[in-house]
Structures are given as structure tokens and as C-alpha cells.
User: Fold M56 family metallopeptidase from Paenibacillus rhizoplanae.
Amino acid sequence: MTDLWISILNMSITASYVAVAVMLARILLRRAPKIFSYMLWSAVMIRLILPVSFTSSFSILKLAGPAGSSGTGQMQFVPKNMGMQAQPAVDTGTASAGSLLNSLLPPAAPAASVNRVQIILWAGSMIWLIGAITLLLYSVFSYVRIMRRVRTATLVKGHVFETDQIMTPFVFGFLKPRIYIPAGMSEQELSHILLHEQTHIDRRDYLVKPLMFLLVILHWFNPLMWLSFVLMSKDMEMSCDEAVIRKLGPQVKSSYSGSLLGFSVRRSGLMTGSPLAFGESSVKARIKHILAYRQPTSRSMAACTLVIVLLLIGCTANPKTVEHPAQVSDSGYSVDQLLESKTKYIGDASKVTALLGAMPLPQGLERAGIELTTGSRPYALTINYKVNDIKGMWNDELQALSREPLLHNSILLFSLIDNADIINYSLADEGINYSFKFTREEIDKLLGEDVRPYGADEVGLRKLIDRLESVKLTP
Assistant:
């Protein structure tokens, strides 16, 4: 459940940045047909549904994406291993917000059996689950209530039903959507309203809006998602209003606005907040938009389409890592990658793995994974290897050749992982295990100083790498 909660958080933060981008784009597109603004909200929906995405250098998230997640399928603002970190930290993409949140997160207590952040994450997942279930049950109750109200409706024609139990028209149903209208509508009102509601059905809005509402329920803790739902509903209704004006002509603007106002005034509390109720919200803004609407030219439609396509790609893509040629030292260390993967916490598994990948592999060994000890001090990293000697056997000569490179790698790891206390090596060879252990204390003593300052910049790191050749194991 905690892993699911962290995935929801990461999707919600990602969708928040996309939602802000869509809101800004709506301002720039305020004179364009509302169907374009409506289409943009699909990017927010995609971000709320899918935890992974493709990568592109055109992604808008490169401006706010978390460090270390570029080029991956998922944006990880909240690390999945945060509950195991000695000093838990999140990367919101905004320095001030991230610093504030990280200052509130409690560090791991050495004497405790469970990290306090693990308890916080579990409690948060339970609160999220209870809230989502409550809202979902309320939505089901509201749906059943409306279904009971319209069950006595009379068929007018096709899929249009009339009833005196409602005060405003709406579309209802998922598999077989029907248009429900109040009794006593005039012919003029009927032509406007049926065209509006039929547009909803033709565009599958009766599925889109409930789906968006379901996603808002899953992300109910995020106020930006509620705002997105309101604005998407507004764009949906205005785009349908535009469809009516295009088909019936500008001469119906006055009567259509009157119908919208009339149904809005006398709508019942039953339909407030229901999917696709005519005249449900933003009445003043919709009437002003109807009266000001002008048929767009084909050139402006083509330009808007191009802009929307580019915005959708930018909003749905993850940032792509810009590849730079790695600077490899004479000793086989990738300096750029080592500096990029420097971390304060040994619990940051992705960066620790990247550090190992930037170091030369000792002769006769192949990597077999890592283990992290982060619950209490001393914080330890265990690196597992398999013996891959062509002779098929671990021997004294190979051991001597491998142990010194392991020492050199350990020195760099202690310089680039601030809170690492112990580096363990476990070597498996046909059922026989060999182990080496290096502590920060003995490494600092061997070099005569704290090695962490060397990892501060490229100059210091290169100086440390050059010094490794003179560092030998004590006999």
C-alpha cells in the first residue's frame, strides 16, 4: 500500500506541473476555439493515469523534473526507498518547496526498529485510501439517486426522454447514454438543447468527464486536480456551445443564451455537480463567450492545431537526458558520472548503483547486486560479486589483483556518499564466499584526512583518483 501511495504522489506532482502549464496555455489560447483548451486537459488525465511515459528533449518537465529521473520512464519526486533512507528527502523540482518539506522529515532513529518516515508514509496511505473510498461511495450514491429520479421518464424519440422530475437537461448513462429533458420545453429551446447534448454524446464526453472525476477522487488530496476538473468542465461546455452556434448560425446566439440562463436559474439541487447537466456552471462566462464567439478561419484552426500537438507532446513526455561524452580518467573512472551521482545518503539506491557503474570492475569479478543497511548506524553498503575467473577458481593471485581495486573504489565511495560508514564486499565462487570490509575510519586514517572534501568538485575528485595509485593495503 505504501508503494502504491508513493506512485500516486509522484503521478500527482507530475500532473500538477502539467496542469499549471495547461492553465497558462489556456490564457494564451483564450481567443481560440475552446475545443483546443478542452483537448489539452487530456495531458493531465494521461499523467494521472500512467506512472511512466516516453522521453523527449521537448518535455516541459525538464524545467522542474527531479534530479536523477531524467531519461527514465517515471518521474520520481518522492523516492520509492524514502522510508529506508537515513535522512529522507524529496525532490519536488522547486528548491524552496523541497527544502521546506525535507526540513520537516524526521531522520532515521538509530535505536528504532522502524524508520519514522515509514510510519508517516503508511499513515498517509491509509488516510488517502479512506478519503478515496468515501468520495467513491458518495459518487455511487449520487448516481443511483439520479437513476431513480429518471426511471419514470417517457420516451420522446430516439434516445431522448422527458420527465417532470428534473429542471435542467442532461446526458445520463455510460453504455447507452440518453438525453433527459424537463417536461414542457418549447420547440425553440428543444432544438438548442438537443444539439448541445448530442454533441456531448458524439464526442464521448459522457465517458470523459466521469473518468476525470474518478481520477480526481484518486488524487483528492491535490487541490490543483479539483481546479483542473472545474476548468476542464468549463472548456467542455463552452466547446459544445460553439458547436451549436456553428451549426445553427450566429442568429441563435440571443435565444440560446436565454435558454442557458433560464435552465441555470431553475436547475434543481439534484443535478448540481452532476456530469453534463446543461447550464450547470459558469453561466455568466458561457453567455459572454457565446455572444462574443466568431467563426475561426481555416488558417487559425491549422495554427492552433499545431500548437496543441506541440503542447501535448511537451506535457506528456518525460525529460530526455542530454548525452555528453563521459570523461574517463586514465584509471578507468568516469568522472562526470561520479560527480553527477554524488549523494548525501547511502539509502539513495539509484545513485549508489550509478556510482558503481562509473568505476572499473576488478579483474575476474562480475556484479551481482547491492544491499543497503540504513535502519541504524553504522550505515553500510554491501556490494555482491560473482567470481568469473577463466580458471574457474578463486586463487591467491586473483585475490591480490582484485582487493586493491576494491580498496580504491571504496575510497571514492566514501568521498561521494557522505553518510557511508562501512563498505562490504561479498564474493561468491562456486558455493564459497569471500568477504572484504572497509570502514570510513580506516580509510581516513590510511589517507591521513577526511576524503569527503575531495568529492566536492571535479578538480578534487581527479586529485583523489590520481592519488589512488600510491595508496596500498597495509600488509
Remarks:
- The chain has two domains: 2-149+187-192+204-267+279-316, 335-468.
- The chain is about 50% helix and 10% strand.
